[in-house]
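Fold this sequence, please.
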Amino acid sequence: MRLLVFYDGHCPFCLGWVRFLLRRDRADRLRFASLQGDWAAGFFRANRLDRPDADSMLAWDGRRLHKESGAALRIAAALPWPWSWGRGLRVLPRGLRDGLYRWIARNRYRWFGRHEQCQLPQEGESRKILDQTPASGEEFLP
C-alpha cells in the first residue's frame, strides 16, 4: 500500500524530512505533495476534505488522513528497518506525542527559517513528488 505524505513546502525542516524519506523509501511506498501546491488543493477538493493549514505533516493511507504524531508514526511504519522502529513510539500517550509535535511545528520557522516560495526536493525521484508529476498520483484520487 502506498502512503501519500503532505508537507509544508516553505519549511526547510520539512523539506529536509522529505529528502530523508526519499533516500530511504526503497520499497517505493511513499508519494509527496506540498500542502501549498495545486495537486494538494485538487486532492482535498476531490476527496471532499477540508484543506488543512500547513502547520502539520499529514499522511493519507487511502482511507484516512493522519496528522501530527499519528502521521509521523504512519510514515515511520512505511520505512525499512532501522527507521521503522519509530512506530514503536505509539506506546507513548497521544497527548504527549502530539504536544511534542506541535511544539516543534510552532518553532520550525524560527529554528530553520522559511522559504518565500515552495521548494520542491530535487532528489532524482521526481515521479514521487506529485507537484512535479501530477499524473503519477491518480491512485490517490477518487
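Helices lie at 12-24, 38-46, 68-78, 94-112. DSSP finds four helices and four strands in the chain.
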